[in-house]
Specification:
heterodimer, A: about 350 residues, mainly alpha, 2 domains, 16 helices, about 0% strand, globular, B: about 100 residues, Helix Hairpins, elongated
């Protein structure tokens, strides 16, 4: 893409999230969300092949409908209470509508059906931006509104965890697997939101780090398919050794850093007398762990003398800058021992 | 709920249902999206008039500017879809299922 156009689009993406973070008026928050949508559409459709255009069209329709519903709910609240402040939504109907519209924007179940198809149609870099950066602005709005109906938030979270786990089970395309893992992680973030917004922010931060590492790993290995992961031992043995650790961190296994948000969320749920929710959450993590383990299996256990699932690739020198991958993989594996430091940094902030 | 509030709430829901349940063409979905934005514009104008408050007078114009940008992005995607898929029929949007 033309570098001037690319820089304008990336600056638009940054500006949109910044505007939503800094806003206290619903119209300004809506403007930031619209800027994010408009800026990422050319990035999605830049390759002009049918899958990219289809993904961009579906993404556009979903995000515009959700943003219009957010604006309608906030104008309903303005009619009923006379003010447009984000943190002072008084009536329960606009709160519920805004929560549902924001969960459509994020891709929470049961409104998650667009996410796997859209992520599948994109290249890995744009999929990374979609899965990480585009989740920040709606979460900034969700963390500020006080939930009127706790049952809605908890059930959105539980259904997301189960739908993300079960939905990702029978896929071979890596982008769809990552989309369902995103749905499951968003469920974990939602379920604790009414009790501790700082734990939601911590879970979001860990999810961003781990998903960045996953997308950058698959981009380095140039694989979008589980079969093509089988030859990664020939391309970069070090990545083949570390990527299973990163995937198990996504699954939430101790002693990796993905365990930290899950542990604290289950602890908070138990303190709030929601033991059944905590049990269902812990069991649904097993579903996601299964498909992460399947990706690990394709990475590591399919080398000789077993049958190879992939075709031997040309071993060309990779021109990808390796610093983001190295940083995010190290962070997603090694952060658990310094968790008191991380908690002291994040918990007072929210 | 006053009559005005009921009027624009029900018209918004009608257009939203039109967006959700569109049948054949992508263009009808874009039209319903534009109708939703227009209803929101009218509701913002009426809010300032009925509450007799001038502090938010620039709001409808800002909404109109952004909804025009969004409409043009939707039309550009319609043209792109006509180039890649051949039509704007929705049954053709099935490449990403598998």
């Amino acid at each position: 893409m033309n570098p001037y156009v690319l820089s304008i689009l990336l600056m638009g993406l940054g500006l949109g999230t910044t505007v939503t973070f800094a806003s206290s008026h619903w119209l300004l928050a809506w403007m930031g969300l619209e800027m994010n949508t408009l800026a990422i559409l050319p990035l999605m459709a830049q390759h002009h092949h049918p899958r990219a255009v289809e993904a961009a069209t579906k993404y556009f329709l979903i995000q515009s409908a959700a943003a219009a519903t957010i604006l309608f709910a906030s104008s309903t609240n303005a009619w009923l209470s006379g003010q447009w402040d984000i943190q002072h939504i008084t009536h329960p109907l606009p709160t519920v509508m805004i929560t549902i519209a924001l969960s459509l924007k994020l891709g929470l179940a049961p409104l998650h059906a667009w996410l796997p198809e859209v992520v599948q149609g994109l290249d890995l870099t744009t999929g990374l931006v979609l899965s990480t950066w585009q989740k920040l602005a709606p979460f900034a709005l969700l963390l500020q509104i006080s939930p009127e109906i706790p049952l809605l938030i908890t059930s959105l979270g539980l259904i997301s965890m189960l739908a993300g786990g079960w939905g990702g089970l029978n896929h071979t395309q890596l982008r769809k697997v990552l989309a369902y893992s995103s749905v499951a992680h968003l469920g974990w973030m939602m379920v604790v939101m009414q009790f501790s917004t700082s734990l939601t922010a911590l879970a979001l931060l860990m999810y961003v780090i781990m998903t960045t590492s996953a997308f950058l790993t698959f981009k380095l290995l140039k694989s979008t398919d589980m079969n093509s992961l089988a030859m990664s031992w020939a391309k970069t043995p070090s990545v083949t050794a570390l990527a299973p650790m990163m995937l198990l961190s996504l699954g939430g296994l101790p002693p990796l850093s993905g365990f930290l948000p899950k542990w604290l969320i289950i602890q908070e749920l138990t303190k709030q007398e929601l033991g059944l929710v905590a049990t269902v959450a812990a069991l649904s993590a097993l579903l996601s762990l299964f498909f992460y383990l399947r990706v690990c299996y394709c990475l590591t256990f399919t080398s000789s003398p077993n049958n190879l699932a992939g075709v031997a690739p040309w071993r060309l020198e990779s021109k990808q800058i390796s610093l983001p991958l190295a940083t995010s993989t190290s962070l997603s594996i090694l952060l658990l021992p310094i968790s008191p430091a991380i908690l002291s940094l994040t918990l007072p902030l929210f | 709920m006053t009559l005005t509030h009921y009027a624009f709430s029900s018209s918004y829901f009608m257009s939203f249902l039109g967006l959700i349940f569109y049948r054949k063409h992508l263009l009808s979905a874009l039209l319903c999206l534009e109708a939703m934005m227009l209803i929101l514009f009218i509701s913002l104008c009426l809010w300032g008039l009925i509450l007799a408050s001038t502090v938010f007078s620039a709001g409808p114009m800002i909404l109109l500017a952004f909804s025009a940008c969004e409409a043009s992005a939707g039309l550009a995607l319609l043209v792109a879809m006509a180039r890649t898929h051949g039509t704007d029929r929705l049954k053709n949007l099935s490449l990403l299922r598998c």
